[in-house]
Records
---
Amino acid sequence: MRKRSHRSRAGTRAVVSVVAAAAMLGVAGCDAAGGTSPAPDGTRAKAKPSARPGPVWDSSPASVAAVGDSITRGFDACSVLSDCPEVSWATGADKDVNSLAVRLLGAAGAASRSWNYAVSGSRMADLPAQMTRAAARKPALVTVMTGANDACRTSAAEMTPVADFRSSFEKSLRTLRTGAPKSQVYVVSVPDLKRLWSRGRTNEVGKAVWELGICQSMLADPDAVDAAATARRDRVRERVEAYNSVLREVCARYRLCRFDGGAVFGYDFGARQLSPWDWFHPSRDGQARLAEMAYRGVTAKKSVT
């Protein structure tokens, strides 16, 4: 009895050892095979569904719609106090400008698959209505350049409050997302109005046009450099910087929205880039520079913040 019991216990231990070894080999084999070996019944882990990849930015959009203000309409680029959309940085056909649409779509494509809904004098509050028109086209890309007129008022006190500016921009993007959820958005920063004043104040013809009512919050009394005038211009510049912060922050919430990273705000428009009629709006050459910056931003592998 004692011997049988001893053999029984020894045999049992041997079986347990073999089973344990086999189990260890099985586990090791599973790891070595990358987890493809079947697990014992009842122990298979349920695979978690992989997250669906979000939409990826298309650097070669097939159509372009533009919304915004006088800059996108080519105001004062061809003649005094007049729109000239053919030289628009966004959708114009002018060969010297080589607009964003032409660079992306070619001349023929730009003629049939780009649309300009910008309105001279418009402010951010007007953008939702423009965006509604753009969304109806289901464009692959919508360019946005607006905000200068929110700062360019008859006085600094009348500038659009930052909160209102934000609300209108958020509404504009929601409008586009509702009407054309697959459309990409490229948002251009508001130019540095104080730098434009410093460039244009040396031109007597330009200053005469300024007196007709162009951006008085910044351009009134252009030769004044006293403390009050300096404080007023600084206040306008600070508001423009706040607007650009809003554009950056709101755009960042949307996967298919790119901000230009402040490229236009930081660009130093020289004499050649300013209208010969008002020394404030972009000339043909200025429009071409805007088109270059936009093309780089749209076709870049990564967004610039």
---
Amino acid sequence: MISADAYLPVNGEETEFCRHIRDLSLLGEKTFSPKFSGFLTEREQKLAAHTASSVGVEYGFWGGYEGAVRKMFSAPSEDKENYPFEAVTFFYRPKDKLTHRDFLGALMSLGLKRDRIGDIVVAEGGAAVFAAENVLSLISSEIRKIGRVGVKQESGLKIPIPEQEFEDISAVIASDRIDVLVAAACGISREKAASLIRSGAVVSDGIEVSLVSRNIDEGDVFSVKGYGKFIFSHLGHETKKGKNHALIKKYK
């Protein structure tokens, strides 16, 4: 299991963030009216959950669809339809191959803060942007092109959310240490995995991993520079030699 320290702030910026979430949580409980954050990263969501739990306040997260990465936090927990954001769908010619980066660049050029924008889901000929209510009018009035590509807008989620695809990696591991899992996921030796960890190339729980002996939980996501992003999906039955079958999924 991951130490509780993994969910504590590691610098002044995170300390200030946790203080904000604590104040937000207590205010929501005191006024019996849900208070919302901006869109949070996965790391910030874990910090927010730990902070709200530490003061005994019920909380919730929602990002617009099941499986969303960036989500808003609410305290107390609130119905999904009441979160203060909406989707905007952009349409363009399928032959114009726009990317997540293209859309994010256009949105940031408006001077928006990153926490005003949630997930950006790109499909063939269309993309959905989840945005806080207070920036919707700006997006609607200003964005007519993404780069050199003309786009049309419609309010709401008008395209299907593409299902995340994975490559399954089956392995037999001696433990759930991060160096063991990195080695199995990337097809490299534990020595090479340890070297990558010490060089700052491995990120889990939204922060660089510094200890090769750190354990991670089933369901945790980690990324390795130069190799990709993975999720420790499942720890299976034990072998006769005391090791365990494991399933690691690599994001495509």
